[in-house]
Amino acid sequence: MLLQRRAIFALGLRMCSSQATTGPQTIEGARPSSDMTEFRQVFSKAKHIAIVTGAGVAAASGLPTFRGQHESWRKWKSQDLATPEAFSRYPSRVWEFYHYRRELVMDKKPTAAHYAIAECEARLRAQGRDVVVITQCIDDLHLKAGSKHVLKIHGNLMETRCVSCGHVHSNKHSPICAALKGTGSPDPNVADAQIPVDKLPRCEKKDCHGLLRPNVVFFGETLDSHVLTKVEKELEECDLCLVVGTSSIVYPAAMFGPRVASRGVPVAEFNLSTSPKTEYFTYHFTGPCETTLPTALAPLES
Ligand SMILES: [Zn+2]
Fold it and tell me: Where is the Deacetylase sirtuin-type domain positioned along the sequence (predicted)?
């Protein structure tokens, strides 16, 4: 309980998005290094590696992140749809949005970045070393690639949760219910399907039949404290942290890397560009993570 409370205070529990309007304030003389040889030396000695991943890890798979300027669904941004208020007022519209996203994910394969992480975990495990993935992604591509130790802080698109009884269930049906078949087009000219609420996904538990929702954390919602407690432990125990494919603007995940860095532990960022948190890190490698990560995590020559 104490640890749980500490997790709440240390990390903050609500998911929120903070768009940085200015670039990172670079501290003179504190620029992160991009020396891969030096990083590889640190990597060779690490016993417990925490890898924090965001949407960028899946970008090469073709999955939209719903974060960019042009990534809207119909006329809405994900921040307009992925909220408890939107789900409560427009459950059919929100389910269409998530149905669209589920169908996209089912089509996609893991990227070279997902595979590099999964292979690294398996290789290091055989040497008695630990790798944990702490991901903001709600897709299942880390698991598809073979990662075993994955903490999904924003939930899972392939799970449902009953709003009445709270039951969480893995669900990979396509479509998830008959009424959603053929719906979910992102085209702004397409009208809402306006599916009656009793035709949306419903709980299969006996005597419940409550409305199901995607088991993901909506904006403004509380993160699962059990998952956060595990994350807290990993961040405290790791001796190397990688921050991969995240713009570091969604909290609390944006603070995971800086928190590890504040203990004096090396943190390496792999991203298309610098982020508002780059200045906190020891290393920064610019470029698509499906290119930089396989090099960084490749087996070491003996
Ligand atoms: Zn139920």
Answer: 29-302
In angstroms, what is the span from residue 207 Cα to ligand 1's centroid?
Answer: 8
Would the pTM count as exceeding 0.85?
A: yes
Which are the catalytic amino acids? 154
CATH 3.30.1600.10: which residues of the chain? 64-107+155-216
**DSSP secondary structure of 106-131:** HH----HHHHHHHHHHHHHHHTT-EE
Distance of CA 89 from the midpoint of ligand 1 (Å) = 20
Q: The domain 64-107+155-216 is classified under which CATH number: 3.40.640.10, 3.30.1600.10, 1.20.1250.20, 3.40.630.10?
A: 3.30.1600.10
Cα 299 from Cα 24, distance rounded (Å): 33
Instruction: Provide the residue-wise pLDDT of the chain in tens; the chain has 302 residues.
Output: 334 434 333 445 667 765 443 333 444 446 899 999 999 999 999 999 999 999 899 888 888 877 666 678 999 998 899 999 999 999 999 999 999 999 999 989 999 999 999 999 999 999 999 999 999 999 999 999 999 999 999 999 999 999 999 999 999 999 999 999 999 999 999 999 999 999 999 999 989 999 999 999 999 999 999 999 999 999 999 999 999 998 888 888 899 999 999 999 999 999 999 999 999 999 999 999 999 999 999 998 75
Q: 3.90.25.10, 3.40.50.1220, 2.60.40.420, 3.40.640.10: which CATH number matches 1-18+28-63+110-153+224-302?
A: 3.40.50.1220
Binding site per annotation, positions for Zn(2+): 162, 165, 203, 208
Burial of 104 (0-12, 13-18, 19+ CB in 10 A): middle
The binding site for NAD(+) comprises 245-247, 271-273, 289
Nearest to 213 by CA among 226, 194, 196, 200: 200
> With contact defined as beta carbons under 8 Å apart, do 12 and 252 qualify?
yes
